[in-house]
Design goal:
The structure holds two protein chains of two kinds. Chain A is α+β, with helices and mostly antiparallel strands. Chain A is 25% helix and 18% strand. Chain A has 17 helices and 25 strands. In chain A, the strands form six sheets. In chain A, strands 16-15-22-21-20-17-18-19 form an eight-stranded mixed sheet. In chain A, strands 1, 2, 3, 4, 5 and 6 form a six-stranded mixed sheet that branches. In chain A, strand 21, helix 12 and strand 22 form a beta-alpha-beta unit. In chain A, helix 8 packs across helix 14 and helix 9 packs parallel to helix 14. Chain B folds into three domains: 231 residues, Rossmann fold, CATH 3.40.50; 85 residues, Ubiquitin-like (UB roll), CATH 3.10.20; 87 residues, NADH-ubiquinone oxidoreductase 51kDa subunit, iron-sulphur binding domain (de novo design (two linked rop proteins), Up-down Bundle), CATH 1.20.1440. Helices cover 42% and strands 12% of the residues of chain B. Chain B is built from 18 helices and nine strands. Chain B has a five-stranded mixed sheet with strand order 6-5-9-7-8, with helices on both faces. In chain B, helix 5 crosses helix 6, helix 14 runs antiparallel to helix 15 and helix 16 runs antiparallel to helix 17. Classes of the chains: A alpha+beta, B alpha/beta. Chains A and B meet through helix 2 of A and helix 14 and helix 15 of B.
């Protein structure tokens, strides 16, 4: 196997390795500073930051043996200039010195950093990127101590609205061209280019055109400085005030891996999380707007329709009591349970198990597909995150839910805005007793006779199966109104806001929603109705599903966490067990 | 060789009127060399390459690389398109030689390019001319149309199976597009950013296909080599840098202009005899021998120096494009250097950090010194910056910006120091 020596240590690499030297160094846990390079895009080598010193061993032309020097060491022919490691292809026997072992390299990196900074505004105190800024971090690590720049900085336009979601501060730009390459190579909209020349240049859309690429906000993430900022998130929160919680995009069926950024029990923004099997480093802009759903317009406390069409808030006890009494005044044959592709596997499972035990056998769901909206990349026709999961649990797909509803007396619906998306009409539910367990205010919630608020993906740990059959899970990112120990157990430890307790940095009670996980509501209902059911945490429910449903065989939260999701397709499963 | 330049008969722009008219060109032996290599069985493409390699035509665009050797780097034909890109973007300040060829002897260049295409089995030739040369672009279009009408361009030349296309493209006013890979980007309709090498253009050039890039004057030398043989060419001028050279002499001389003479003419002969001396009888102060990026030479460094790569390297400069800028005793070197730095600041494409930021910084410090507000330490900062820029970028523009600063300050340091503010601190 070919070998390479980096800072005196020997590494092996595969024959025909197509990774550049920089990526190899990074993958081996070492560091070389860089700005323009991005593992998913071409390497333009324009920031000139990732310099290393490179040499190759001299071989005897006749024998093919390495030439040795007087000390018996291999003789090395050094490249005349330092090389940008991002564009250097590895060769067998290559010797590399990074800034750790070469004064010359450290000096060159410092030189480049000084030059990058001369026209940079250094406005970190008011810059959104501060705290997660490669330029800031690498300047502290590899930059010069001060600047010798005593003349006037180059001024460039600020606050340019490039498109509906991205704002540019051209002065902060270091011209790494990552954004331009993103629109050329990843989203292929070709909407951005660099304009002007030399130290006056910055990225721009064509005159009269907007940067309205459906993936435009990825440029904000990959911008190594604060030049491209999210128009929505600008100046809302400092990076170090927020907690980062892994989760899944629920706005379509791709199952894009994301991070929820929370402060004071509010989701402030959503960013993509790397998963090479699903979404690489990217996510569609639509998924980022979903954060508002988690904070605003939430159903909080149960509501019940007492007279006519007026709903009023009620207690949890009363809600469960009403639920049970309604069921008991009818029989299981009068009940239709409508599962939801928008809700998690665990929620759908809990509903099905309880009502199945009571004798119901009418379980349906309405897929939420909008033909033609998918783009073959990260946006799917499927508008829901868990269509595959509901199917695998045994809910029957129904394309005419309205006629199913006609033959029943009680309709129990889980987290699905059926009226809002036109599957049902208000009239369909007239004369029925409709119960909705859901997260957000909507026409469906206004129509229902009993509304029970449940936790959303930002509040519970639960799993979702994407269109490709991959099961992935969420973590609680924000607290519910009343401390819920079982949810807190899944929360990331060491959070700055310490779970939003009264001893927090930030406590705003109104930001918490009075809701409970659907399985806990089912626990209460089963308890009231004398059914032998007791769900634990989402983790335990998944163990139960894995043990009883062959489609979920061997699935567990541990595996999902370790493997960044598990593919449930039979073919992959055989591979895994083989 | 140094003294026989007076008897030299020009071959690139000979003294024949109306040579730009194709009939006149043919009457004077034009397109014979092309017909010979294409039609005669003995002239295989390999033989043409070897003949040109043997002649040692060193690239006239500034780098001085053996043209035939460059041609031999092209991979074997694989049936796909291959390109020749002719670089007529001459934008280096002090350089204005190629336009003389476009204007007075365009068919010589066209013939040379066609021979090159034959030698490398090339299917399409592009000639890239700087946008400011609007009239010369028009002249080239006319000349190419004439050549096409006479059957020198197109399908099955001279009834053989050799076919070639030839197109003119105008630049849009960027110096950087004279850099060979940046020119390829521009030809592809993209922003003129130099490419990272490797891959070299011979492997992956225009649209990812094998491409050779030659200067206009380099190609104009090819028909002569084919007609008269490599030895004829090698016997003209300096031994290591043979052939006729178009010297573009500008600045404080009595008769500036483009002169065709053998390589290796003594510098002082060119200034005093060819250009008829320094204007107004003043003393010579300095010479930039090959376009603004080549290091400046003081008058006292010019004794015995001749215009060829070796002699100029010994003197501490470079041949470049042979665009000689002559400066008399009244020249303000601080001003000259500031103006040169202004040019590179304006023309840096902005791709690589050291060049994008460094060229601007150099200019701003020089402006400060020019305005009498500089300090001695600024000179050391300038010299330090040149090492931070040189060799640290994708293309050579940073080098071209750094060299004049380094050498002008080192060679005229007293003049720069005199312009700086005196230290206000008393020496203890």
């Amino acid at each position: 196997m070919p070998e390479i020596f980096i800072d005196g240590k020997r590494y092996e690499f595969e024959e025909g390795e197509d990774r550049g030297l920089l990526q190899f160094i990074l993958d081996n846990g070492k560091e070389v500073p860089f700005f323009c390079y991005h593992p998913s895009m071409s390497a333009p080598a324009n920031c000139r930051q990732c310099y290393v010193k490179v040499g190759t061993p001299v071989k005897n032309r006749e024998t093919g043996e390495y030439e040795l020097d007087e000390n018996g060491e291999r003789e090395i022919r050094w490249f005349p200039k330092m090389q940008t490691s991002c564009t250097t292809q590895m060769q067998d026997g290559m010797v590399v010195h990074t800034q750790e072992t070469s004064e010359e390299v450290a000096r060159a990196q410092k030189d480049t950093m000084e030059l990058i900074l001369i026209n940079h505004p250094l406005d970190c105190p008011i810059c959104d990127q501060a705290g997660e800024c490669p330029l800031q971090i690498q300047t502290y690590k590899y930059g010069p101590e001060g600047s010798r720049f005593e003349v006037k900085k180059q001024h460039k336009p600020k606050r340019i609205q490039l498109g509906p979601r991205v704002t540019l501060d051209a002065e902060r730009c270091i011209n790494c061209t990552r954004c331009v390459r993103f629109t050329d190579e990843i989203s292929e909209s070709h909407q951005l280019t660099i304009v002007a020349r030399g130290d006056k240049n910055y990225p721009m859309a064509a005159p009269g055109r907007e940067f309205d690429d459906p993936y435009s906000m990825n440029t904000v993430d990959i911008c190594p400085v604060g030049a491209l900022t999210s128009t929505d998130f600008r100046f809302k929160a400092r990076v170090w005030e927020m907690n980062q919680t892994p989760s899944i995009d629920i706005t379509n069926g791709k199952g894009t891996n994301i991070d929820l950024w929370t402060r004071d029990n509010l989701v402030m923004r959503i960013t993509p999380r790397f998963n090479g099997e699903v979404n690489d480093h990217w996510m569609p802009d639509a998924g980022r707007d979903a954060y508002q759903r988690f904070n605003e317009n939430r159903l909080s406390r149960p509501a019940i329709k007492l007279d006519g069409d007026n709903q009023s808030k009620t207690s949890w006890n009363n809600a469960i009591e009403t639920f049970a009494e309604t069921l008991e005044s009818h029989g299981p044959e009068d009940v239709l349970v409508v599962g939801s592709p928008h809700a998690s596997v665990e929620e759908n499972y809990a509903l099905m198990k309880v009502f199945n035990l009571w004798g119901v056998n009418n379980f349906k769901f309405a897929p939420h597909i909008e033909e033609g909206t998918g783009d073959g990349f990260l946006i799917t026709d499927d508008q829901a995150p868990n269509t595959s999961g509901v199917k695998l649990l045994g809910y029957e797909e129904s394309n005419d839910l309205a006629s199913e509803v006609k033959n029943t007396k009680i309709v129990i619906m889980l987290s699905d805005e059926l009226i809002d998306r036109g599957v049902l009409s208000k009239d369909d539910l007239k004369g029925k007793f409709s119960i909705l367990l859901s997260t957000n205010e909507c026409d469906t919630a206004k129509t229902a006779d009993l509304v029970i608020p449940v936790t959303c993906i930002a509040e519970h740990a639960a799993s979702y199966v994407n269109v490709e059959g991959r099961i992935q899970r969420s973590f609680p990112a924000k607290e519910t109104k009343y401390t819920n120990r079982s949810l807190d157990l899944e929360m990331n430890q060491g959070r700055l806001d310490r779970f939003g307790t009264n001893f927090d940095n930030w406590v705003t009670e109104e930001n918490k929603v009075d809701c409970a996980p659907a399985w806990e509501i089912m626990n209460q209902l089963a308890n009231r109705m004398g059914l032998d059911v007791s769900f634990g945490r989402g983790r335990e429910i998944m163990e139960e599903i894995a043990g009883s449903n062959p489609a979920f065989e061997n699935v567990s939260y541990e595996r999902m966490d370790n493997e960044m999701g598990i593919n449930l397709n039979p073919s992959n499963k055989q591979e895994a067990t083989a | 060789m140094a003294s026989d330049w007076k008897s030299f008969e020009p071959v690139l722009i000979p003294d024949i009127p109306n040579l730009d008219k194709i009939d006149n060109y043919i009457k004077n032996g034009g397109y014979k060399a092309l017909e010979k290599v294409v039609k005669e069985n003995g002239w295989t493409p390999e033989k043409v390459v070897n003949e040109v390699k043997e002649a040692n035509i060193r690239g006239r665009g500034g780098a001085g690389f053996n043209a035939g050797l460059k041609w031999s780097f092209m991979p074997k034909p694989d049936g796909g398109p291959r390109y020749l890109a002719c670089n007529g973007d001459e934008s280096e300040p002090g350089t204005f030689k190629d336009r003389k060829i476009f204007e007075y002897n365009p068919h010589l260049f066209i013939e040379g390019a066609l021979i090159a295409a034959y030698a490398m089995q090339i299917t399409t030739i592009y000639v890239y001319i700087r946008g400011e040369y609007y009239s010369w672009i028009k002249m080239m279009e006319k000349a190419l149309q004439d050549a096409r009408d006479k059957g020198f361009i197109g399908k099955n030349l001279f009834g053989t199976d050799f076919s070639v296309e030839f197109e003119v493209t105008g630049g849009a006013g960027a110096y950087i597009c004279g850099e060979e890979t940046s020119m390829l980007e521009s030809l592809e309709g993209k922003r003129g950013y130099p490419r990272v090498k490797p891959p070299f253009p011979a492997q992956k050039g225009l649209w990812g296909r094998p491409t050779t890039i030659n200067n206009i004057e380099t190609l104009a030398n090819v028909p002569g080599v084919i007609n008269n043989g490599a030895n004829w060419f090698k016997n003209i001028g300096a031994e290591n840098h043979p052939g006729p050279v178009l010297y573009g002499i500008s600045g404080h001389v009595n008769r500036p202009g483009v002169y065709e003479l053998p390589s290796g003419v003594p510098v002082m002969d060119l200034i005093n005899e060819v250009a008829q001396g320094v204007r107004g009888g003043k003393k010579l102060k300095a010479l930039i021998p090959g376009g603004s990026s080549t290091p400046v030479l003081r008058a006292d460094q010019l004794d015995g120096v001749s215009m060829d790569a070796d002699s100029l390297r010994e003197a501490g400069s470079m041949m470049g494009t042979a665009g000689m800028m002559v400066m008399d005793e009244d020249t303000d070197m601080v001003d000259v250097l500031w103006r040169i730095s202004h040019f590179y600041h304006h023309e840096s494409c902005g791709q690589c950090t050291p060049c994008r930021e460094g060229t601007g910084w150099l200019e701003k410090i020089l402006l400060k010194i020019k305005n009498g507000e500089g300090e001695i330490r600024d000179l050391d900062l300038l010299l330090d910056l040149t090492t931070q820029m040189e060799g640290r970028t994708i293309c050579a523009l940073a080098d071209a910006a750094a060299w004049p600063v380094r050498h002008t300050i080192n060679r005229f340091r007293d003049e720069f120091e005199a312009r700086c503010k005196k230290s206000v601190h008393a020496v203890a």
